[in-house]
Structure formats: C-alpha cells, structure tokens
C-alpha cells in the first residue's frame, strides 16, 4: 500500500458500566474499545493471488512467511504495518482490522477487505 491507509484499535472488554467509576458516574474515560492496533496484512492486486495466500494460511502456514511470499506491499517485514491509530487507515480496512481479535502469526485470526489498493488479508497482533 503506497499510502498509509490501514486500521487501528477496537475490542474493549467491559459491560454497560465500562468507563464509569464505583459510584456509577462517568469516569471521563470513553468505553470505545481499542484506539490503536498492531496490524499485519497481505496485499494482493489480483483476487486469485489473495485466494492462494488464504489457502496457505488456512493450511497452517505462518502469516509472516505467506506475507513475504505473496504480499505486494511490506513483504520484507512479513506484512507488518506496526501500530496504527484509529482513523488513519482506509475505512474498509480499518472496519475489518479493528473488529479482529489479537492473534499470533503462527495461529492468525484473519479478516479480509477490498480497498482501492487491492485485496487484503489482515491480522492483528495487539490492541491498546
């Protein structure tokens, strides 16, 4: 991806009282979920290439290794985009990425998105 148009953060664990103090008053902290994510992706211009990469991941291949082989962006770093803030990524990429649970490259929880840059296979390594 030429421009830095990816996702950041989501996934707050907390009930309806998240963000409230012991007295039930608003503590000033918004219960919005993560505001940044440590994200990796595999970017493919062609749908067929993305499907090949997905098949390898589903067969148990390491996400980083598949990214180095298939991704047309950030391939040298196993698809790592690093920590990204909410609002800094392509809206569709961000919607998918912030909805994902954190996982490892060996057992990734993946999502898919289509953006003007191409087809993305996305995983999140951390949230804050």
Automatic annotation (TrEMBL):
<dbReference type="InterPro" id="IPR043323">
    <property type="entry name" value="PIN4"/>
</dbReference>
<keyword id="KW-0697">Rotamase</keyword>
<feature type="domain" description="PpiC">
    <location>
        <begin position="34"/>
        <end position="126"/>
    </location>
</feature>
<dbReference type="InterPro" id="IPR046357">
    <property type="entry name" value="PPIase_dom_sf"/>
</dbReference>
<dbReference type="InterPro" id="IPR000297">
    <property type="entry name" value="PPIase_PpiC"/>
</dbReference>
<feature type="compositionally biased region" description="Basic and acidic residues">
    <location>
        <begin position="14"/>
        <end position="29"/>
    </location>
</feature>
<dbReference type="GO" id="GO:0006364">
    <property type="term" value="P:rRNA processing"/>
</dbReference>
<protein>
    <recommendedName>
        <fullName>Peptidyl-prolyl cis-trans isomerase</fullName>
        <ecNumber>5.2.1.8</ecNumber>
    </recommendedName>
</protein>
<comment type="similarity">
    <text>Belongs to the PpiC/parvulin rotamase family. PIN4 subfamily.</text>
</comment>
<dbReference type="GO" id="GO:0003755">
    <property type="term" value="F:peptidyl-prolyl cis-trans isomerase activity"/>
</dbReference>
<dbReference type="GO" id="GO:0003677">
    <property type="term" value="F:DNA binding"/>
</dbReference>
<keyword id="KW-0413">Isomerase</keyword>
<dbReference type="Pfam" id="PF00639">
    <property type="entry name" value="Rotamase"/>
</dbReference>
<feature type="region of interest" description="Disordered">
    <location>
        <begin position="1"/>
        <end position="33"/>
    </location>
</feature>
């Amino acid at each position: 991806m030429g421009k830095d148009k990816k996702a950041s953060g989501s996934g707050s664990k907390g009930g309806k009282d998240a963000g409230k103090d012991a007295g039930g008053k608003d503590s000033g902290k918004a219960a919005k979920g993560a505001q940044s994510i440590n994200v990796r992706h595999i970017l493919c211009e062609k749908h067929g290439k993305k499907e090949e990469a997905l098949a390898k991941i589903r067969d148990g291949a390491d996400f980083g290794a598949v990214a180095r082989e298939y991704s047309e962006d950030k391939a040298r770093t196993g698809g790592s985009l690093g920590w990204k803030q909410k609002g800094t990524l392509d809206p569709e990429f961000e919607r998918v990425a912030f909805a994902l649970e954190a996982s490892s490259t060996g057992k990734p929880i993946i999502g898919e998105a289509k953006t003007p840059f191409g087809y993305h296979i996305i995983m999140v390594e951390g949230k804050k």
